[in-house]
Amino acid sequence: MIAQAEELSELHGFGEPIIVDNITFEEAAVELDNLANQPVDIILVGASGIGASLGEISEKYSDIYWYCNCGAGLPPSDFFSQTQYDNSDIAYTGGVAMGLLLQERGGDSMAMIGCCDLGFEKEVFLAFELGLKSVDPNFTMSYTPTGNFPFDFNNTANATIAFDAAVAAGADAINPYLGGALEPIARLGLDAGLIVTHPGSSTACGDEIPYDMTQRNDGGDFIRIVFPDIVAGNFPEGTIRVFTAATDPDVVGGEICGRERPPELQAAYDLVASGELDDEFGAIKAQAYASG
């Protein structure tokens, strides 16, 4: 998203953007307030995890246009716009892609390494598992939390311990559902000969790290798509756009690197678009967020 902000600012003749990266959950409210006191017209917030105070701050500084790449979403507000994505159908297509790779390489198990058993992590795990088992019901998944509640996806030491345990348990693939700890764990996985998926980037297949697949839900793509409407005044505060593998299969969802989308994976996209999995996705969401 940062790269897109810089590119879009230059494209539209704006000044160089002010970038504040790696904001923690605890620092978010202060950092957003500090940004609002800079000479800015638009503030782009990169994740719902740092947007918990966005409703209050965007109302306080309502002369600024506020946008949030909000993942699973924040409550609607008249003071900021947001893009969201559907974790269930994205993870389902990711699970199918992973299942095809496991089938191809003779593996049968995947380990997901995450933060702290958050609701959206549970949703991703359950939907990914549904897709994985649609390829082969004998495939298995595990999940290990490695960070501090609520949004610590950067604990490389704990993630390394979890990775070593997964390898010892016989994992054939790894889903490092991480932030700052992503690249070190991805490299460990590739060095160990495991199948490795990126958790979200649409450009991962051209990355320096040779990922085997990706589960596209890239905030840079979302802002690139809606920014022309923001500038034109056609995406006002209060607007919410949800990206799904059903409606936006060229933007979000699982993809295997280095090849055209195989027919089995396309069939998974078609199944999602048909609505046949809606009840199962609804049950997954209910289970994932049951405890708040």
**Topology pattern, helix = H, strand = E:** HHEHEEHEHEHEHEEHEEHH
According to CATH, the fold-level topology of the largest domain is: Rossmann fold
Under the CATH scheme, the architecture of the largest domain is 3-Layer(aba) Sandwich
Which secondary-structure class do the elements indicate? Answer: alpha/beta
Strand content: 15-25%
**CATH class term of the largest domain:** Alpha Beta
* Cα-to-Cα separation, first versus last residue: 28 Å
Low-confidence sequence ranges: none
**Spatial sequence of strands, sheet with the most strands:** 5-4-6-7-8-10
CA radius of gyration: 19 Å
Q: Helix count, per DSSP? A: 10
- Proportion of residues in helical segments: 40-55%
**Overall pLDDT metric:** 91
Description:
The protein is of the alpha/beta class and 292 residues long. The protein has two domains: 2-85 and 219-243, Rossmann fold (3-Layer(aba) Sandwich), CATH 3.40.50; 87-216 and 252-288, Rossmann fold, CATH 3.40.50.2300. It has ten helices and ten strands. The protein has helices at residues 2-11, 28-36, 54-60, 87-105, 119-135, 156-168, 182-191, 219-232, 263-274, 278-288, and strands at 42-45, 65-69, 81-85, 109-114, 140-145, 173-176, 195-198, 213-216, 240-243, 253-256. Helix 5 links the parallel strand 4 (109-114) and strand 5 (140-145). It starts with a helix and ends with a helix.
